[in-house]
Every structure is written in C-alpha cells, then in structure tokens.
Sequence to fold (359 residues):
Amino acid sequence: MEFAKTEKKRVAILGATGYGGIQLVRLLSEHPSFEITFLGGDRNAGRSWNELFPYINLKNNLEIENINIERIVKKSDYVLLSLPNGLASSIVPDLISQGLRVLDLSADYRYTSLDDWKSAYSSESIKYEREDYDLCHKAIYGLPELNRKEIAKSNLVACPGCFPTASLLGLFPFLKQGLIDYEGIIIDAKTGTSGGGRIPKEHLLFSECSESISPYGVIGHRHTSEIENIAGSITGHPIELQFTPHLVPMVRGILSTIYARLRDPGLRAEDCATLLDTFYRKEPFVEILPVGIYPSTKWVKQTNKVLISVQVDKRSGRLVIMSVIDNLIKGQAGQAIQNLNIMANLEEYISLPVTSFQP
Fold:
C-alpha cells in the first residue's frame, strides 16, 4: 500500500547567521515536516549557506538574503525571528497581517505590556519606535510547560529568554502550589559566552574571559523583570526577586541556582522532589534528579533537556533549586522548534536532541 506524501511546511529563518539562527538551521535541516525556504541576514546577504557553514550542509544550499517582507510571505508558512531586540517588532505586524505564523526569539513580545518592554529595554539602542500595543497583548509567552494550549493556537509566540527558562521551570511548581514566600527569592545564574551572541565583543574575547568568572548586570538586568512578570502571572501576586548573572569561561550552558524560603519548614527535599516529579511527569524535556545529585551543564549540552535538582536547608528553612539547560537549545533555538512543533500539531520532541555527548 502506498501512502500519500505529506507536503512539508515552509519555514523562513531571519537572523540565520547568528548563533541562534545557526542552531535553528541545524535542527530544522533534518526535520521531517518542515523545509527551510528562506534565510535572511543582512551581514552575509548574497553568500550561500554551504559556503558560510560547510559543516551544516543544506541540500538546497539557500542564499542568504536581505529581509524582504514580500519574498518572505511568498516563500514561507512560518517565520522564525532570531534578530536583535527592537528589530523583530519592526516587521512582525506585516508578517502577521499577511497570515504567517511567527515565532520571535528576541524579547520584543515577551511582555504583554509594551510600556513594560520599553522600561526594560530603554537602555538599548533600539532604532524603531514601537506602537504595537495590541500585538504585545496577544502574543503568547512560549514556555511550553506553562502555555502549551495557548501556543498551539497562537499566530505569535514570544520565545522566552535563556535565563528565565532555566529559572522559571525550577520555580514554577513551588509558586503554583504556594509553597514558597513570594519575597526574598534569589537567583544566582551562570552562563557560557555564546549567550553574548556572535558579533565580537571585547569582554568575550578569550584572553579577557578565560580562567575567570565575573558577575554582570548585578542590578536591573533585563531578564529580572521578565522572570518577575511571568512569576507574578503564575501566582497572581507581584513578585520581586534578586537575579544576578555570571559569565563563565565555557561556550554553552546555564546553571541557575535559586534560593527561596519554604512556608512549611517541615518539608523535606524528598517531598520537594516528589512535587517536581508530579508536575513534570509528562514533560518530554524536563527531568528531575534524585535528591543529592546535582546537575552539570555538560549533562544537557547540545540537547533540549532541562535537569532540575532540589535540596532543603533545615537550618535556614530555605529551598535550593538547581536547574541546567543548554542556552542555545532549550534556552533559544530548541525551545523555538518545540513551540513550532506544537503550533503545527506535531509531537514536540521531533528533531530535538535529548542525549548529550560526553566528555
């Protein structure tokens, strides 16, 4: 018996030659249900993909093109935007109005309030003045473990930041159940250098960051408000927390260590691990480690997995949550493809790796 061949859905990737875009191409190039039909990127326009990245061979060897709405509309059903903050929102309204389904990897639609976004990103050199209040309100925050049903129906998904992904997945069950105080939450996070992007920056040079670890964005880091906003939407109460990121001399990975005060001092680490297991038992990418085993970023390298471990300090009554992700996969491109699979009514693990490579 012969089966009808299912026509693949067409995908455009804008910002294809940055770290996020490269990961998107790598993961989608072998996807059975999608075909990459447009690659956008102003810096490398006119050059072929295989010339730039011979180690990720595309059979159709697309040429990188300048961003052109008319051509994108003609050549795609879905659009993945891996562009700098402030740029995606200059083209998303046109893409949505033409009936395309959009996944934005930047921060432009992570806030339901455009005023909140402007407040968080006012220090950046945003070139475009935004007035798309309605789209901000309609966009769905693309953390599947929180918003799977809404993602499936949405035409605009705002993929979360890497730090918020690692932190919120650890916090979510405890906030949802009201087991921790809403005040006094501290997030101490470590990230690899790829989180700074592919454009050269002095502080990311090997001789600057190797053999060293350093904090940055100690007060007012832009991901603080993103985490607070989503945490507040989970609890229905305003959340204020302390978030401090650190740069670690490794290429990829995030470790988020979260401290929160338990409302019930009688809870044990085993009880907290059981809660996590119950919340995430059906999630294909979240794994809860046994009490006493603490996660390493290398264990999730090149995968879309999240590993979470918990411990309870009986002396202080504090819960310690440890969460690791690959910042370029579950923290960026992999999560976008997970959302893409959901939007297309596919199994969400398709084309997403779950086994890391050692050493």
